[in-house]
Design a protein that fits this description.
By secondary structure, the chain is an alpha/beta fold. 45% of the residues lie in helices and 13% in strands. The chain has a five-stranded mixed β-sheet with strand order 3-2-1-4-5, with helices on both faces.
Length: 300
């Protein structure tokens, strides 16, 4: 049965994304200050991880700097009349984000997941594309690669990793799968994931790989690709006999385009550039963007 969308409700959810409404429940305010239960050397923390994560999330949603996030939080607390808690200063936000353990928050998962893996580049600093094309390259440009694994049913990102730009896409797949606790039915990926390490990782977790073979792909011994190697040989054989398009239609490979849609949403909502220069801060920044996007996706 084909799923239909209520376009009136969907349109209203997009409009509500521009609605600025803040509320702090008593539980959040009670956890705003750090408990400092464990022994540690140095000055004790003042603010909890919940307080830091809340302000960092606001920073990403509204494209703020650390100083602007501090001022924004002060203004919100002033309007709400909150006097039992204070806002962390911008230096605390920057320092605490380096060690903050942020995980991707997902809701609404049902049954085995059909996972789509993809990656995209996020610029750290450097020249724009127009300047390079017009006048040539004169400064060093640095990028980071954001690797995601998303649920094809809910279109929410389940896990993500931020790596240097030299990291191979296929090498990150075992790390992504190890972080997913739910049972996975199928894994969709483009030709960049047609690697032995990906097929071996899917074999380990009992996942059906849906990956198109590359143009120069040849039939190979199944054992060298893990127990799922026969999926690749079947795809190569069908692509030779009936064409690659027929194989894509049979295995519903078109679902992989949802991964590109999610990457497009990330760049349209939060930009193509990372604001932080430190790798640890960049990882937290990327996780905050993903959590905000998952929250937006639930409102559809």
């Amino acid at each position: 049965m084909k799923k239909t969308r209520n376009w009136s409700e969907y349109n209203e959810s997009l409009v509500n994304r521009g609605s600025i409404t803040f509320w702090f429940c008593d539980d959040v305010l009670a956890l705003w200050n750090h408990q400092n239960k464990g022994y540690r050397r140095g000055r004790p923390f003042i603010y909890s991880d919940t307080a830091i994560e809340t302000l960092l999330l606001v920073r990403e949603v509204f494209h703020l700097t650390y100083r602007s996030a501090e001022g924004f939080g002060r203004n919100v607390f002033s309007l709400l009349g909150v006097r039992d808690a204070s806002i962390p200063d911008y230096t605390s936000l920057c320092k605490r984000s380096k060690t903050l353990n942020v995980s991707v928050k997902v809701a609404g998962k049902h049954g085995p997941l059909d996972v789509i893996v993809d990656s995209t580049g996020l610029k750290v600093y450097g020249e724009g594309e127009w300047k390079v094309r017009k006048h040539g390259r004169s400064k060093h440009r640095t990028w980071r690669k954001l690797h995601i694994a998303m649920d094809a049913k809910t279109q929410q990102i389940v896990v993500a990793e931020l790596t240097p730009n030299g990291r191979d896409d296929a090498s990150v797949v075992p790390e992504l799968l190890a972080q997913i606790d739910d049972k996975i039915g199928s894994l969709y990926g483009d030709g960049a994931y047609d690697k032995r390490r990906v097929y071996k990782a899917t074999s380990q977790y009992g996942i059906c790989p849906v990956i198109p073979p590359r143009k120069n792909a040849r039939l190979d011994f199944v054992g060298s690709w893990g127990s799922n190697g026969h999926y690749r040989n079947d795809a190569i054989a069908m692509a030779r006999s009936e064409g690659l398009d027929s194989w894509k239609e049979q295995v519903h490979y078109h679902r992989r385009s949802l991964g590109e849609t999610v990457m497009f949403r990330i760049k349209r909502l939060f930009g193509e550039r990372l604001k932080n220069r430190n790798m640890a801060n960049q990882r937290v920044e990327a996780m905050m963007k993903i959590n905000a996007l998952n929250k937006f996706t639930l409102q559809k």
